[in-house]
Amino acid sequence: MKFVDIRGLSVAAVLVAVFLLGTFSHARLVENKKLADIPLESIPKKLGEWKTIADSELDFRSQEILKLDRYIKRTYEHPNGTRAILYIGYWRQQTGDKQAAKHSPLICLPANGWSVSGKSEIPMNVTSSKGETTLSVRRLTASFRERPHAFYYWFFSGESEYNNEWAALFLNIYKKLTTGKSDGGIVEISIPMDSSVPADQIGEEEKRNIDSFLKELYPALIKASVDEAGTVE
User: Which end of the chain is more exposed for a tag (fewer CB within 10 A), N or C?
Assistant: First the structure.
């Protein structure tokens, strides 16, 4: 008598169901020829006390590699003199190398000559149209030509947010299979840090600056990526 592994069959059945659901959803999306889209440009150039002092374009090489559908790269300045560089990159479809997780600071900074010396996960209390929540942000400390900076970043897709590269890759595949959608992007904020503070610690001034900036940025990002999000042919 042959015994059948019921658990194995159950797992296989679930995988087949997910595949069929994803195939149906993807086919429907292709038929409608509509992709998710968000108006990143609507994010204000004035965020509380932070004012834009420069809008920058990605260099030609970065544009050719990333092939982003939308992006902004801005330098904001606080009255105290601190500057924060904001970069948000977005793809309507994340496939192949066009995925946020494959272009995170953890990967790209060392490739561009930065020396990464510390990394950690930081819980940030934020408020938006979704209400109060805790956003888990990845923090890296890196230096270029002896100038240390702190990089804060996370990935997003619709109302989903995550700070782990592997999680971002997996969830992108899952969403594409189950909904036919694979849009998403990355938010990256870099601010100067106190070189006298150990890389794995956050100085008081850095904490005040990132708290102040993120308090204003997060609701504006949610407004663009969730409340004002639409579709494009």
Answer: N
